[in-house]
């Protein structure tokens, strides 16, 4: 499977590089007066901290951060799912939930090109937050397929999609993932397992750029993760109101972080919480389309924290991780970081 991905994505990487050369000069540059500091660590004025938001998000309250081992604990968060997380659980290939999948045909909805839904089979823990995952330019659905069961096994309903055309560009991918989200929450065979009020988006490359545009268009999106995002106009990030984790790669020659990921992070003026994870010794394609434990750990932790309001995952995000172990650098708006 990995060899197939490598052969497929090698062509995708070339196509993306050619598109970058053509489009970069045609897309208007972003207007970014008063850009954020390089570190991106100062929270936006008036923004509630992670700890503050834990007790008020969506009318739910959480009884503080998880206490130490052996202490009694009382949770009032109706969205909390699964056992207490550990380093082993957030880095495991399979989480605590058994999953099943259902294929969505390409003709199921005119707004996107079909996909696959992965969902927990446990019907005794209520509904789960939905997440739509979109591939990059020329990338097929299976280039992001590994994210589906991995996230679903942690307690999400996840849909990986194909675009209508593999050459669809950033704004088209944004519209397609919103169409897929509407299908997933309103028409799919698993819609009764979903809480439509807590949606999330993940996308790679142009799919990552599409994530930003989709979240800017629909303020009800709760949390997003653009992976190696490609979009020459980072100004769309100004209108994103979702908690956002931007992931970049230090050796990315297709979407260099200084041109794409970092400006998007700095332009997240309205995001309640944001973070920027830069992978070390990583590049644009294989670091993201092949299973990556580091990406999985922080994607799971981010979505559990901000879609499920589950403060048990705070410890994987705040205080921020130090460089090393595959992390080149990490910026954030954690309190006191």
Automatic annotation (TrEMBL):
Region of interest (Disordered), ranges: 61-91
Keyword Zinc-finger listed: no
Catalytic reaction list: cutin + H2O = cutin monomers; a butanoate ester + H2O = an aliphatic alcohol + butanoate + H(+); (ethylene terephthalate)(n) + H2O = (ethylene terephthalate)(n-1) + 4-[(2-hydroxyethoxy)carbonyl]benzoate + H(+)
Span of domain PET hydrolase/cutinase-like: 76-335
InterPro entries, per the entry: AB_hydrolase_fold, FrsA_esterase, PET_hydrolase/cutinase-like
Single GO term (MF): hydrolase activity
Keywords: Disulfide bond, Hydrolase, Periplasm, Secreted, Serine esterase, Signal
Enzyme Commission number, as recorded: 3.1.1.101, 3.1.1.74
Residues annotated as signal peptide: 1-26
Chief site of localization: periplasm
Pfam families, per database record: PETase (PF12740)
Cellular location(s): Periplasm; Secreted
Similarity section: Belongs to the AB hydrolase superfamily.
Name under which the protein is recorded: Poly(ethylene terephthalate) hydrolase
Species, as recorded: Actinomadura gamaensis
Classification lineage: Bacteria, Bacillati, Actinomycetota, Actinomycetes, Streptosporangiales
